[in-house]
Structures are given as structure tokens and as C-alpha cells.
Specification:
single chain, Oligo-1,6-glucosidase, domain 2, binds alpha-D-glucopyranose, binds magnesium ion, GH13_cat_dom, signal-anchor, membrane, disulfide bond, O16G_dom_2
């Protein structure tokens, strides 16, 4: 082994490279070298010696350690170390502060409108005249075109179709009319691939009379004996009490097999489940698990106020106490004190909700719940379905008040209906608005076609989640259904209550059957005769169409902070016009809506509002020729049925000076310098 004393002393030769000669035995550690020097009697301080050479690649550990303890290496290293510690701590602190200051992100059910598909009427892929799951699959582009991310599909469970799917024979199966379980799974996967969420209809209150449980209950199978509400009654005698079905007449029907009466708050083919039986509750919970495991994103809970009935079965008080009892046949004749909104109802819904929540834990897998309950002038009952900070229930109960708009169309009435919700909604909750569904006449027909656009404009510029019933985005109207064509059981009882008019096939194009079905000439309900002009294809080509305006507003709602999470403030209401603004603290761009629901054209004078600039430019008018028009704020003109979205810029906020006129679900402010939102 050679000794490299020379090179150590000179401090110039890199020993590591000498090994490249191939002589492994040439390798020497610095430590050995030092030992050698000392053994030949040269006394040197090792530190001093190493000061004379440079570190080299491949130096052994011992040498490395000697170098690394030298001050010129050690000090920078320690400085760097502490710097890293400080930077890391600072980053953690900044992150925590940002998280603490950031308002919650909107969840998917808040971020986009909910679109309701009535599957019988949306798109028929196989030509049997009834829409189906494959048909929906063919039309996913439509949702994306409208910037819609949440789709609620009315029931497609196996069903005898007495109430078109709201009478469920098997909660775990798909009706062959709509397709197969595989079709469902493919639809769900395709929707998820496109970032679309699927909300299922869920019907806890009743089953079909063909459901296995009912068959077993009729024969008094011990386990199923009280799955339904059975009461002794005489087949030819009086009913157990005066309760009536929503579809009319007594809600009690005698069953020959069991020899008792059973309760049905809807059709006699829809017996009410007995939720006082814990096994029934468990059955429903199991079904919720079944669909959540398949990956559905949420449920629309049907007819929830009917879930429980008073156990005492007393007669309900008549609205008109003098009416002869035999004429008491509709829900409007009775105060439904014992058949709706009973104590215990919310506990059940909260139990269902808790199941959803166990599936919400995965990131971006939030499961949504909306409840259906018409409480009319008892709005406080509806509000009870909202979750609170302590107990979770609905994300929101459906808000049906705008469905009343046509009955008294005016600016004051529109404000009144909006205020029913905003004035009663618990603080911090998220509003929502429904202007059409499969149970109510199309708003284009009840308000008149001239008001369709302004109603869509209202829907998409109010705070909260808008719900759009299929076809509202193109302004579809009711069809006329003759007596012999009536399909709806409610219509068979009372023609004027028929829901067929609003369930006609979706109008996709000007081809046969409006493109709903292009294989045969059958459609389960007639197609509206206006389909050649009122259809998706034609309206996509027209920038001023109902569809294009819907799409514009849906995009605007998503892109503009003020519209999807800003303040909502009432500005003005009169016989024609309802006006409100949307603004966000810190953001100069705000929106003023001037909507004319009345019968006459109007000039609205907003000159008394200093927060508005003097000149206001129309971003979108339902009357396309007025796009871009500039109005003095003292003279904003609208025709009957015209709505304006005005975008303006201001540094003066309206909400601080009018707290009683303004609402916000969760306050957030904008910091323009660094372009962030923060809690304020
Ligand atoms: C809900 C549905 C309606 C159905 C009823 C009975 O109100 O929206 O269509 O007939 O429940 O299930
Ligand atoms: Mg079909």
C-alpha cells in the first residue's frame, strides 16, 4: 500500500481519482494516512493538515466528518438548517391562517343548478314510447352544454307504474321499461366521468301494493304483520276515520285477503309503510346503503311529511266544519293535523341523513339530501327540514313558493314569494328555488309564454340552488290531454288535477316525435305541437333563444362570485317590477336585476340609490334587442315579461347601509390585491 504523504501535504491531488488506475489496494483512507505520518514521526495537527487540502469525491466517512466539523462548513450548514425550520414554520402558519380565513368552498349541490329528468319523457332509446336510462345516457352532452352538474332523476325502480314509478315494487331493481341494473351502472359511471352527479328519487312513505312486504303483510306473516298501517274495519261499513288521500277520497281501503283496512295517503295501490315498526326503519336504511354503495350522489326524499301518522287515528278537523262529512273528499277539506308532520318525523329523516354522511367522508364524495314537502302557508314546517349546526337533516328542503308566481304575476308578488323563503330561512342556510316539476303545470303555461325567460332569469340570479324541470330551459309548455288520453291517476280522479300536461316528451329537434323517439311513432303522451320551433336543436343556433339565455345565465352564475355567493338585496317592487342586486364586499363588479312580471311596460326610477352608478348598461335582456343598452338609473325601462341583468362597477356597497334588506348565506369578502376570498 502506497503512502500519499506528498499529496496530503500539498493538498492538490485528488486521491479519489488515483483509484481509477485499477489498483484497489491503492485506496487509502485519510485516517490511515494520518496514522502513517504520525508513525514516521511527523507531528502535525490533523485539522491543520486537512485545511491544506480540498474535499474530494469519494472521500471516506472519517475524512468527511473531519471536514464537516470545520467552522466554514458547519456554520453555513447550521444557518441553512435553521432557515429551513423557520421557512417551514412560516409556511405552516400561513397555511393555517389561510385555511382559517377562507370561506368554505361551495359544494357541488350549491355550485350548479339541479336539473330534473322525468325519465319516461326525456329520451326513448328503444322506441317503446317511454323514455329510458339509455336515453338519458345519450343526452349527457345537454347537461354539460347548460353547465349543469347535478341531475335528479325521478323514480326508475321496478314498479307497476300506477303512479309512474312512485309506487315501488322492488327498491333494489330497475324497471325493465327503463332498462337494467347494468344500464344504471353504466349511466352512473358515464355521469361521474363527466363530473356529473346523480340524485335519485327515494320514496320512503309507501310501496306498491305489489311489493313483497305488502304481500307478506296481507297474509299476516309474523315478521311483516305490521309493516303497514292496518286497522279493523267492516268491508261495507264506515271507514276507520275521515282521513283522505292526496289523490282524493278515503285513505283507507279494505283488503279482502287480510280482512282489515290499510292506510294509503296516495293511491290505494300505494300502501303507507308503518314507520313505528323499527324493522321498517331498518329496511329503508338498508336500501339507502344499497344505492350509496353503488355510488349515487344523493337523494330527493319524496312526500316526507306523510311518513308518520298519529297513532290515535282520530278524525282530522274539517276546514269547513259545516260541510257534510260525505263531501269531505280532498286534502283541502281537512286540516291534516294527524296525517302530516308528526312528532318523530325529523328523527327518522336525521337517521337517514346519518347514513348518507357516513358515505360523505371520502373527499369529493359529499352525499346530498333534499326533501319534498308542500307546507303552503306553514312555511316554518318546511324550514324544519334544514340541517342545523347540531343536527344534520336536509341540505335544503325544496322551495316551491315560486310555483305560485303565475297566480298573481306582479313585481310585488314576486318579491313576496321570494321573501317567504328569505324571511323564514334559518340564518346561514342555503336557499333554493323551484319553478317547475312533474307535479305542477309548466310555468310557461300558467304564467304565459311571455314570462318564461324572465322567470328563468329570476331563478338563475337569486342566491342559492336553482332547480330546472326538463324542458324549462327551452320554454316548453303544457300539452292538452283529452279525457281519453289521461294517464295520470290524479287526473282520472279529477281531470283538472291531471299532471299529464307537464309530462310531455322532451323536444330535442324538429324531427319525428321531436327527437324523443326516432324508432317508432309511439310516445306515451303526445308531443307538444310547437316542437318544430320550440326544441333544443333550433334554439342552440339562435343566440337570443330561451335556451341560449338560460345557458348564458348558468355560466354567468358560475363565473361571477357576486352571483353565486354574494349578498342579495331587495331594491324595488311595484305592480310590475321586482328589482334586486347581488354584490360581494371588496369586489367592484356587481349585478342589478330589473324584472318585469307585470302586464305593462314600466319605467323604474332608482335615482334615490346612491350606491348605483348614474348610468347602467344592460348585460342581458330577455328582449335581445336591448342587450348593451344604457339607461339612466332614474329611467330603467322594461316591457311586460322583460328582465334585465345589469352589470355595473362601484366601490360603494349597498348592504352595509341596508342590513334589513339584504341576505347572505355565508359572508365572504374579496381581496383584489391578491385575488382571494376570505371570511369577514
Ligand atoms: C310526490 C311525487 C308525486 C307522487 C307522490 C306520491 O309528491 O312528486 O309525483 O305522486 O309523491 O309518491
Ligand atoms: Mg323506452
Amino acid at each position: 500500500m502506497s503512502v500519499r504523504k506528498d499529496s496530503v501535504e500539498l493538498g492538490v491531488t485528488n486521491l479519489g481519482f488515483r483509484d481509477a488506475d485499477g489498483d484497489a489496494s491503492d485506496t487509502i483512507s485519510e485516517a490511515e494516512s494520518v496514522e502513517k505520518q504520525e508513525s514516521v514521526g511527523v507531528k502535525m495537527d490533523p485539522e491543520e493538515k486537512y485545511n491544506q487540502m480540498k474535499p474530494y469525491a469519494g472521500m471516506p466517512k472519517e475524512v468527511l466528518l473531519l471536514y464537516s466539523s470545520q467552522a466554514r462548513y458547519r456554520v453555513p450548514r447550521e444557518v441553512l438548517f435553521w432557515l429551513m425550520v423557520c421557512v417551514t414554520l412560516a409556511l405552516v402558519a400561513v397555511t393555517i391562517t389561510l385555511i382559517a380565513l377562507s370561506p368554505r368552498c361551495l359544494s357541488w349541490w350549491q355550485a350548479s343548478p339541479v336539473y330534473q329528468v322525468y325519465p319516461r319523457s326525456f329520451k326513448d332509446s328503444d322506441g317503446d314510447g317511454v323514455g329510458d336510462l339509455k336515453g338519458i345516457m345519450e343526452k349527457l352532452d345537454h347537461f354539460q352544454y347548460l353547465n349543469i352538474k347535478s341531475v335528479w332523476i325521478s323514480p326508475f325502480y321496478r314498479s307497476p307504474m300506477k303512479d309512474f314509478g312512485y309506487d315501488v315494487e322492488d327498491f333494489r331493481d330497475i324497471d325493465p321499461l327503463f332498462g337494467t341494473m347494468q344500464d344504471f351502472e353504466e349511466l352512473l359511471a358515464a355521469m361521474h366521468d363527466r363530473g356529473l352527479k346523480l340524485i335519485m328519487d327515494f320514496i320512503p312513505n309507501h310501496t306498491s301494493d305489489r311489493h313483497r312486504w305488502f304481500n307478506l303483510s296481507r297474509i299476516r306473516d309474523p315478521h311483516y304483520d305490521d309493516y303497514y298501517v292496518w286497522v279493523d274495519c267492516d268491508p261495507n261499513g264506515p271507514k276507520p276515520n275521515n282521513w283522505v288521500s292526496i289523490f282524493g277520497n278515503s285513505s283507507w281501503t279494505y283488503d279482502e285477503v287480510r280482512g282489515q283496512c290499510y292506510l294509503h295517503q296516495f293511491l290505494k295501490e300505494q300502501p303507507d309503510l308503518n314507520f313505528r315498526n323499527p324493522n321498517v326503519v331498518q329496511e329503508i336504511i338498508d336500501i339507502i346503503h344499497f344505492w350509496l354503495k353503488k355510488g349515487v350522489d344523493g337523494f330527493r326524499m319524496d312526500a316526507v311529511k306523510h311518513i308518520l301518522e298519529a297513532a290515535h287515528l282520530r278524525d282530522e278537523p274539517q276546514v269547513d266544519p259545516n260541510k257534510p262529512p260525505e263531501l269531505v273528499t280532498t286534502e283541502w277539506d281537512l286540516h291534516s293535523d294527524y296525517t302530516t308532520s308528526q312528532v318523530g318525523l325529523h328523527d327518522l329523516l336525521r337517521e337517514f341523513r346519518a347514513v348518507l354522511d357516513t358515505y360523505s367522508r371520502e373527499p369529493s364524495k359529499y352525499r346530498f339530501m333534499v326533501t319534498e314537502s308542500y307546507d303552503y302557508d306553514e312555511v316554518e314546517k318546511t324550514m324544519m327540514y334544514y340541517s342545523t349546526h347540531l343536527v344534520r337533516e336536509s341540505d335544503f328542503p325544496f322551495n316551491f313558493y315560486l310555483l305560485d308566481l303565475p297566480h298573481n304575476a306582479s313585481g310585488v308578488w314576486a318579491k313576496h314569494l321570494v321573501h317567504i323563503w328569505m324571511g323564514n330561512m334559518p340564518r346561514g342556510e342555503w336557499p333554493n328555488w323551484v319553478v317547475g316539476n312533474h307535479d305542477r303545470h309548466r310555468i310557461g303555461s300558467s304564467a304565459g309564454p311571455a314570462y318564461v325567460r324572465v322567470i328563468n332569469m329570476l331563478l338563475l340570479t337569486l342566491p342559492g340552488t336553482p332547480t330546472t324541470y326538463y324542458g324549462e330551459e327551452i320554454g316548453m309548455e303544457n300539452i292538452n290531454v283529452t279525457q281519453s288520453e289521461i294517464q295520470d291517476p290524479a287526473g282520472k280522479y279529477n281531470t283538472s288535477a291531471s299532471r299529464d300536461p307537464e309530462r310531455s316528451p322532451m323536444q330535442w329537434n324538429g324531427d319525428m316525435n321531436a327527437g324523443f323517439n326516432n324508432k317508432t311513432n309511439i310516445t306515451w303522451l303526445p308531443v307538444h305541437p310547437d316542437y318544430e320551433t320550440v326544441n333544443v336543436e333550433v334554439q342552440m343556433k339562435d343566440s337570443g333563444s330561451v335556451l341560449s339565455q338560460y345557458r348564458f345565465l348558468s355560466n354567468l352564475r358560475e363565473s361571477e362570485l357576486a352571483l353565486h355567493r354574494g349578498w342579495f338585496c331587495y331594491i324595488h317592487a311595484d305592480a310590475n317590477v321586482f328589482s334586486y342586486l347581488r354584490e360581494l364586499d371588496g369586489l367592484n363588479r356587481a349585478y342589478l336585476m330589473v324584472l318585469n312580471f307585470g302586464k305593462e311596460s314600466a319605467i323604474t326610477d332608482l335615482s334615490s340609490i346612491p350606491e348605483l352608478p348614474d348610468q347602467l348598461m344592460v348585460l342581458l335582456s330577455t328582449n335581445q334587442v336591448n342587450d348593451g343598452k344604457v339607461y339612466q338609473k332614474s329611467q330603467i325601462q322594461t316591457e311586460a315579461g322583460e328582465g334585465l341583468v345589469i352589470q355595473y362597477s362601484t366601490s360603494r356597497r349597498y348592504n352595509p347601509n341596508h342590513p334589513e334588506e339584504c341576505y347572505v348565506s355565508e359572508k365572504a369578502c374579496y381581496l383584489p390585491t391578491i385575488n382571494i376570498l376570505y371570511k369577514c
